[in-house]
Amino acid sequence: MATGQPKARLMDTCGDELPLFPGRPHHLHVRIDALTLELAECRSARSILGDIAARHAAIIRASPDAIITMTSTGLIASCNPAAERTFGYAGDAIVGQPMTMLMPESWRAGHAAGLRRYHETGETSIIGHTLEVAGLRNDGVEFPAELTVAHVDDGHVGHTPLFIGIVRDITDRKHAEETANRRATLLRQQAQFFDLAFAAILFRDLDDGTIQFWNCAAEELYGWSKTDAIGHVAHDLLQTHFPQPLDEIESDVTTSGHWAGDLQVYDRDGQHHVIRSRWAVQRNTAGRPTGVLEIHTDVTEQRRIASERTALLAAAEEYSRQLEELATLRADFSAMVAHELSAPLAAIRGFIDLLGRKDLESDARERVIEIMRGEADLLRTLVTDVLTAARAERADFAVQLRPVHLDTLVADALSFAQSFGDEHPVTASVVAQGMVLADPERIGQVLRNLLGNAAKYTPPGTPVELQVMPRGTRVRIEVIDRGPGIHPEDLTRIFEKFGRGRDTQGQGVHGVGLGLYLSRRIIQAHGFDLLVQSAPSEGSVFAFELEVTP
Fold first, then answer.
1. What are the DSSP calls for 191-210, one per residue?
2. Is residue 137 within 8 Å of 87, Cβ to Cβ?
3. pTM score, two decimals?
4. Looking at the predicted structure, is the pLDDT value of residue 8 above 50?
5. What is the DSSP string of 151-198?
6. Among 309, 444, 500, 532, which has the minimal tally of Cβ within 10 Å of its Cβ?
7. Residue 162, phi-psi category: left (phi > 0), alpha (psi -120 to 50), beta (remainder)
8. Helices marked H in 19-63 — which ranges?
9. Cβ neighbours of residue 419 under 8 Å, at least 6 residues apart?
10. Count of Cβ atoms closer than 10 Å to residue 262 Cβ
């Protein structure tokens, strides 16, 4: 080597410098340096490849899927731990064995045909695809699996191509799919069954209340098709009225799982329905309530019939009560009429015998005749009341309305009151004047009844007042007494047919109890009502109104 040139050095595998032989050409030293560098790079590459291979091996060992390599002749070259677990073999028990040992008998012929095609054409149809296949475990049990196959060929002469298969046991997934399919089939069958049901059935989401299912009967009952109803809030669509707050009902149904009650709803045309509704809560696999199944039965007609039946029963009971009451009243009426007739008839009979005496003086004869006339009038009044009551019971009972001067009605009433004598002085206070629309005979009968009752039910010497006063387009007529008043229990009874009041000692008074009943019927036929105001020891006021006419 020439003096002054750099001294070439060679590094051995341990990193020690190796001096070059002196006297060698310079280019030889450069070449040796280059070879040394290449050698170092190869060692580094082999180290990297070793690391990569180690990582790949770790990944394969840790993979949850079975990874199996197979030679082109169909023999198992290697398998990972997941493959051992999946198929139930130890690795040394299957390496070198035919791949067919891991597949059912029915799959082996197809596998052999695929290998022959590969050897003849160099092609295979399964590379790059995920296939659903069947595996065979060591215990003879078949299981469903997914298979993905890759082909590895490094191109070196003498190297055997390999097939890498990744197998995934999908038993759980297939079971879940089968379960889901069975549930879907069951739901379809239930939906078909629900569509055949006569009752309206809907399913709604518990959180937002939207309708998820709507059967044919619901379409017929409410008028909304499935397309129209599904997705809408059920209770908004039907305008539901609940027997109690909805949150209370849903709290009950989520707790107990069911609820039943009557709902008020409306269909698409706005028709009202009474619904017998039964609810059942639906829960997910975690037990959380997710929806409510509702079954609706239209009981509108049943409720109407039941209501009519109840009304008919009530009417029948009332009619039966009235019949019993009528029978009692008839018996009482017969007794009362007989009693009321017997007294004046006996008096008249006695006075007739008295008139037959020849020694009866003329003054006494006149008094007897006057008394007999009064008794006859009493009989005539009784007969008139009975006949009027009979006519008042008829549906065509009516009054003959015509303009009548108030002075005429008042004069007739005061003329009748003169028969009371000094025992019951009657005074009149007439403020209103003019004509009223009335049936004078009937109104005269009312005034006679009211004035006669005032005299009958009050002690002797008690005054009676007749007042007539204007009330806008009407005239108000009142009969006022200052007697003991009407017993509180008699305020409604006195207007009933055959109803009688009582005196201050609580004893019934004479009469058949038709006067006030007829008087009210007559006033009602005029378009008004007969009213009474009374309090114990403060007297009574009977009043009615008539329409003023020009």
1. HHHHHH-SSEEEEEETTT-B
2. yes
3. 0.41
4. no
5. EE----TTPPPEEEEEEEE-HHHHHHHHHHHHHHHHHHHHHHHHHH-S
6. 309
7. beta
8. 26-62
9. 374
10. 13
Helix (H) or strand (E) run with residue 276 in it: strand 272-283
Distance of CA 345 to the CA centre of its chain: 72
pLDDT at 424 over 80: yes
What mean pLDDT comes out for the span 389-404? 76
What pLDDT is attached to residue 393?
A: 63
CB count in 10 Å sphere of residue 500 = 20
Show the CA angle centred on residue 519, arms to residues 518 and 524, nearest 5°: 95
DSSP 8-state class, residue 88: T
Classify strands 258-266 and 272-283 as parallel, antiparallel or unpaired.
Answer: antiparallel
Number of Cβ within 10 Å of residue 312's Cβ equals 11
CA distances from residue 466 to 434, 510, 530 in whole angstroms, order as listed: 17, 24, 15
| Cα 432 from Cα 468, distance rounded (Å) | 6
Cα–Cα distance between 161 and 75 in angstroms, integer? 12
77: left (phi over 0), alpha (psi -120 to 50) or beta: alpha
What DSSP character marks residue 494? G
Strands 76-79 and 66-71: antiparallel
Helix (H) or strand (E) holding 86: helix 81-87
Which DSSP helix (H) or strand (E) runs through 133? strand 130-136
Considering only CA atoms, which of 424, 350, 343, 413 is closest in space to residue 379? Answer: 343
- Rounded CA-CA distance 237/210 in Å is 10
Residue recorded with tokens 């191109």: 155
Structure-token match 């008249």, residue found: 348
Query: Which residues lie below 8 Å from residue 130, measured CB to CB, with a gap of 6+?
Result: 146, 147, 148
pLDDT at 56 over 70: no
Q: Which of 530, 517, 434 is nearest to 477 (CA)?
A: 530
Q: How far apart are CA 418 and CA 330, in angstroms?
A: 34
From the centroid of its chain, how far is CA 468? 59
In angstroms, rounded to a whole number, what is the distance separating the alpha carbons of residues 259 and 265? 17
Return d(Cα 417, Cα 426) in angstroms, integer: 7
Count Cβ neighbours within 10 Å for each residue of 3-19 and write b for 16 or more, e otherwise: eeeeebeeeeeeeeeee
Is the per-residue pLDDT at 61 higher than 90? no
3-class SS of residue 269:
coil
Coil/strand/helix, residue 66 = strand
pLDDT tens digits, 144-156:
999 999 988 755 5
Residue of 91, 53, 98, 108 whose CA lies nearest to 72: 98
Task: Identify how many contiguous H helices and E strands the chain contains and give both numbers.
Answer: 14, 19
| Euclidean distance between CA atoms 478 and 467, whole angstroms | 5
